[in-house]
Design a protein that fits this description.
The structure holds 2 protein chains of 2 kinds. In chain A, strands 2-1-3-4 form a 4-stranded parallel sheet, sandwiched between helices. Chain A is about 40% helix and about 15% strand. In chain A, helix 1 crosses helix 4 and helix 2 packs across helix 3. Chain A has 4 helices and 4 strands, in the order βαβαβαβα. Chain A is α/β, with parallel strands linked by helices. Chain B is an alpha/beta fold. Chain B folds into 2 domains: about 120 residues, Response regulator (Rossmann fold), CATH 3.40.50; about 70 residues, no CATH class. In chain B, about 30% of the residues lie in helices and about 20% in strands. Chain B contains 8 helices and 7 strands; from the N terminus they run E-H-E-H-H-E-H-H-E-H-E-E-E-H-H. Chain B has a 4-stranded parallel sheet, sandwiched between helices. Chain B has a 3-stranded antiparallel sheet with strand order 1-6-7. The longest helix of chain B has 17 residues. In chain B, about 35% of the residues are buried. Classes of the chains: A alpha/beta, B alpha/beta. At the A-B interface, helix 2 and helix 3 of A face helix 3 of B.
Chain lengths: ~140, ~220
Amino acid sequence: MDNETFEPKIVAFCCHYCAYASADLAGSMRLQYPTGVRIIRTPCTGRLEVEYYMKAFENGADGVLVAGCLEGGCHFIDGNLFAKKRVNTTRIILEESGIEKERLRMVNISAAMAKNLVEVIFEMVETVKKLGPNPIRKVAI
Amino acid sequence: MIVAQRKTIPEILGSINGHKNILVLGCGTCVTVCLAGGEREVSIISSALRIASKKSGLQIKVNELTIERQCDNVFIESAAEEIKKNDAVLSLGCGAGVQAIAERYPDKPVYAGLNTDFLGILETRGVWYEKCMQCGACILSDFGSICPVTRCAKHMLNGPCGGSREERCEIHADQPCAWQLIYKRLKEIGQLEKLDTIYPLKDWSKSISGGSRTIIREDHRI
């Protein structure tokens, strides 16, 4: 599969209070982003555990984007700070397992930052396109 | 509680090399509390192993199970069926758990997925401190419940070494001087006179130095 035909499957975990609202706003603003991105609403990025990301990659996701509130702006005070630490831990485990750490990324987006969210999604898609499909997809999925 | 940390995925892959069906067995007691070998960690390490094995074309089938306690026969039995179904076991228990499983299943290879570090407590979220080195002859009562054997880097029993700086240990500057803590604590509880006693040489024969120890309680045996 070359970079032209490869459309990455990206799971985007979006916090209900910010990034999910910004994705909604992106829709209202008619901003387009690649169709391979699947948005999953979470009550807070602090709800996301390491195994969620691992399962996503195990099941063939090419990339995982975690979008939480701006630092200091978490509805649950420090959920996004926990998420940042867990994402960093997961990146270490992914590298040990043979998956490039760049496939997992966390960003901080407020509910008003629809354009930024779309930009980040495009960046993520570009990064994953350069890396190619999730290496385990060649074996099974 | 026993505090442990996970081994790296390449280390684990190296030890389970050659097996097609692996049971990743967690323990619901100490290593769950220290976030190293509970149900969640079993899930994470299993996912990592599946990813790594698929990537390298090994196709190892990884199964998951967490039992209440790996160092107890009663609980090990609950894993009997799963252990028999798999070629080998990757135990996420402490060193005692790994050995307990291996002893109960002589024909089954059992590998350690964790490094067992020490007996300690959760100081604050995500931080564990060693508090006891199981010397077999507890002297905490004489030192204000602060263990000089474990917490003093030089195991001093008759006062500080003199090298501490600003109440910090000269060996590990990030640790408080145990003797500073002992002095403060004894002063607070009005037992400073305990420091007047010269402590004799410690009897290390009750410690690990002579090989593994056994405790037999005749009152609990027939």
